Structure formats: C-alpha cells, structure tokens
Amino acid sequence: MDLIKLIASGLGMYYLFTLIPSLVTSNTAVDIGNFLITGIYIFFLIIVGLMFMAISLYRYTSKVLKILLPVVFTFGLMGGVLLFSNFKTSWVLKVSDSMGLLLIGSSLFFIICFLYKTDDKKSWAPFVPPILISAIAGILLRIESFKPIFNTQNGKYILTAVLLVGLVLQYLFIWYFAKKRK
Predict the structure, then answer these.
(1) Complete DSSP assignment for 38-106
(2) When comparing pLDDT for 111 and 19, which is higher?
(3) Radius of gyration of the CA atoms of the chain, in A
(4) Does 129 fall in a domain?
(5) What are φ and ψ of residue 30, in 5° steps?
(6) In this predicted structure, which of 62-71, 144-153, 154-163 has the lowest mean pLDDT?
(7) Is 111 contained in some domain?
(8) What total of structural domains would you count in the chain?
(9) Residue 82 falls within a domain, yes or no?
C-alpha cells in the first residue's frame, strides 16, 4: 500500500510541477496523454536507475559497467525529454482563459499544501521560484488588460527573461542549500 501511495504521490507531483509551466501560454493546448506517458516513462527510468545504482554499490562490477550505466541512464533521460517534446496524443485539453486560471490556481493550491505538509522543506524550496513565476506569468497572460503587453515581441522577451530569472533563482537555491548541508 505504501508503494502505491509513493507512486501516486510521485506521479501527482510530477503532473503538478509540469502542468503549471505548460499553462504559461494561453493559446496552447495541454496534451494530457503526453504527460501521462512521459510520467510513467520517467518513473520506470528512475526505478531502473535506482536498481543499477544498488547493483553497482553493493556488488562488484567491472569498470566498463560502471562507465556504461551512467551513459545508458543519460541516453534514457534524453529519450524521456525527446518523448515529452515530440510525442503527441489525442488526449488534448484546450484550456480557455478562465479554465486556465482555475487550473493554475488549483495546482498552486495543491503544491502549497504539499510544501506546507512536507517535513523536508529545504529539498523542495528550490522549486518554488520557477513554479511561482510560471504561475504568475500564466495568470497575467490570461487577464485581458495584460494580453496586449505580452503579445508583442518585447513582451515575449520580458516573459522569457522573467522565466529565466526563475531558473537562475532555482539554481542559486540549490547551490545555497547544498553548500549549507556541507
């Protein structure tokens, strides 16, 4: 039963953390089938990676195998990225502006509840800036008075810069908490 809870919570967090960035633009459809297939693929890739890590740590293996396993895992991860970016299904959800606001708000609510209830807040803190910035950008893009600003070329540059700032903040949080743990 605990394994089912772990799988469900892991896939649920994956969907919540990937749904908000996909809802940033208001005129694109959300491919739910792609999210589902990619989430299952990444889940099995992580299980296989943990299995190979356990084998390489607790059993003697050759140096070739120790070099080959990270390479195979990297190619598997690249396959997941290619699958997510190129694979399209017919389970597409066209999100209107009001439905997008509702989805972003409910996703943020569930993420905040998860972050509030978790004991290890430092592990999840680096994810807060990009998710929050993506959510705010998605909300602003769906409000009629902000649409003319973000539909111009300069508005798209500003939006891209703000999202990149979120990623830089995420990197800085990761670096800070990793340095603090040492």
Answers:
(1) HHHHHHHHHHHHHHHHHHHHHS---HHHHHHHHHHHHHHHHHHHHHHHH---S-EE---HHHHHHHHHH
(2) 111
(3) 19
(4) yes
(5) -100, 125
(6) 62-71
(7) yes
(8) 1
(9) no
